[in-house]
Amino acid sequence: MLQTLKPVPPDALLAVTEAFRADPSRDKVDLGVGVYRDATGITPVPRAVRAAEQKLLARQTSKAYVGQGGNRPFATFMEKLALGSNHPALRDGRVTTLQSVGGTGALRLVAELMRLSGYAREVRVSNPTWANHIPVLQGAGLATAAYPYYDIAGGQLLADRMLEALDACEPGTVVLLHGSCHNPTGADPHPGHWTELAELMDRRGLIPFVDLAYQGLGRGLDADAAGLRLLCERLPEVLVALSCSKNFGLYRERVGAVMCVAEHAAAATTAMSQLQALARRNYSMPPDHGAAIVAEIASDQALLGDWQQELDDMRDRVNGLRRSLSTALRGELGGGRFDFIEQQAGMFSMLGLPPAAVERLRSEHHVYTAPDSRLNIAGLSGKEIAAVAAAIAAVSRD
Ligand code: LMR
Known about the structure:
Aspartate Aminotransferase, domain 2
């Protein structure tokens, strides 16, 4: 059987890390895969996470399975984090949440739920979108198509074109939206656009599927979820993939959640039964550690406050890096070609460079971006900004 399989090329984004590791240069800079780094260049374990882990370790007496839906206090906390503690959908009991294997696991479970429903067959994704969105959706048997979102060369959100394209979608179409910190562009809809999106999706019978993977890293915990909260107020159904990889620094623990906002409580209960069955068929039982850490932090006001403080500090640092890089690029190139970097939010911006320039960044300057010229700004320690700006300027001039 195995000899009938055809080889698959390595994942192009993850391959950037491999290429970076293989580069012997001492000046190399890894701005590929999205991980936050501090001023010393490491991806820290947040203080609150360390403290929670110690408490858990001291207390844990068993490694027996956690229940099928995962850690319930974790799920309740994630709902409140995403929606705010007093959201009408929570008061109405229309929300149900299942712990998932990272944000990607949540995306996959939602995709399988959609295919099972037989109702939602096509998913519209932004152009561009995270490199793994389409493989995850198509891997679950769904058809995908793009909606206009961003002018890569001009560094601008195409809000009007997005709204126009979505207005022409068939009722029942699922629209994948990035809750905040759009990956790969860093360009988010403004509050007014979210209002228009909610009105349009309600009027056209479209189903929002929100990927909220960077809550707190763009403009703040509440501001980054404001669009999602509005959709959940205005629309009968919203599907959500949540992740704790970035905002809790729990990347390798693979912790996230699927949140379904249903039209009424009974539909939410049914959705949960289906999600549990899907999870059982996929991996049987959820892992414990990451969700237990988040639940431990949530249960302790001091840890919760410390986590929020560290998250605020991370966000401020990334925004500072954005400003410094924009300034350095203005110094190199004059004009404002890359000013959008300063105006955008979250970990990423896209330089809009052709593949040959991306290749030159690597081979001549040892600066590793994603293949589509996405830059993980949160991966800069800060010391390399002048060199990175000089390298980008060098390959942009020609
Ligand atoms: C990224 O976009 O770089 C991250 O979400 C990591 C990944 O799995 O692609």
